[in-house]
Amino acid sequence: MMEVEKRGHIGPALSLIEIMRVLYDDILKYDSANPLWKDRDRFILSKGHGCLALYAILADKGFFSKSELNSFCKFDSFLGGHPERGKVPGVEASTGALGHGFPIAVGMAIAAKIQGAGNMVFVLTGDGEINEGSIWESALSASKHKLSNLTILIDYNKLQSYGKTSEVLDLEPLMDKWQSFGFSVAEVDGHNVSELKKTLKSLPFNREKPNAIICHTIKGKGFPFAESNPTWHHKNKISKEEFDAMYECLKD
């Protein structure tokens, strides 16, 4: 996809790809032939700039043809730099303005509880994103309504667009924060597929509380020159040499 327009948020996509792979391979109930199936689980990528990973997985699961990936960010493509509901099959919410995917997920979880539906709601946020006040307002609401059908996954790669989270706005002690807001909390290696699968399959952690999973990750995971490197948060002009280096990493 990046080769189409020589740009994209590659670092953020690589920090969350295993999380989403486990969700779509092993956890979520969905029907790619019927994306609006009423009994489906809901997944929101609140960290919308990580959409390279989402598009790759949705295409792999048959929500749309893999050939569409070749149009990424072109003028007439439905695959933009952030995912849009109503344009991209399988996308539950238009995201990119950080901080509002979680409030939408809380609303979905409340609706499911009122309706007595059995579906689960998952939302994946960035760590820099949870600087937003809307996240913590939503957390209070989720705890009040005892939304055990709701899980927030935090892509905790410790790096925001322009610096370390510890320097921009320190999040620690992060587990204690979520517990103090009434969540049952787990911590995992966000790149360990078996650990992710085991943790997600144990949901809900508590029938009276919403769930939070802190996923420790590395931004740009898999490309050593991009790992924890803020210049790879977003690339708007990727050189042939950089593409060659990425392909060499895939060979290894």
Description:
- Helix content is 36%, strand content 12%.
- The chain contains nine helices and five strands; from the N terminus they run ααβααβαβααβαβα.
- The chain has helices at residues 2-5, 10-27, 51-60, 101-115, 133-144, 165-168, 174-180, 193-201, 240-251; strands at 42-45, 121-126, 150-156, 184-189, 211-216.
- It has a five-stranded parallel β-sheet with strand order 1-2-3-5-4, with helices on both faces.
- β4 (184-189), α8 (193-201) and β5 (211-216) form a beta-alpha-beta unit.
- The two termini are 21 Å apart.
Throw out a few tags for this protein.
about 250 residues, alpha/beta, 5-stranded parallel β-sheet, 9 helices, 5 strands, globular
Our count of helices gives 9
Mean of the pLDDT scores?
96
CA-CA gap between termini: 21 Å
Strand order of the largest sheet: 1-2-3-5-4
Low confidence ranges: none
**Would you count the extended β strands for me?**
5
Order of helices and strands: HHEHHEHEHHEHEH
The major pleated sheet works out as: 5 strands, parallel
Rg on CA atoms, Å: 18 Å
Which structural class matches the secondary elements? alpha/beta
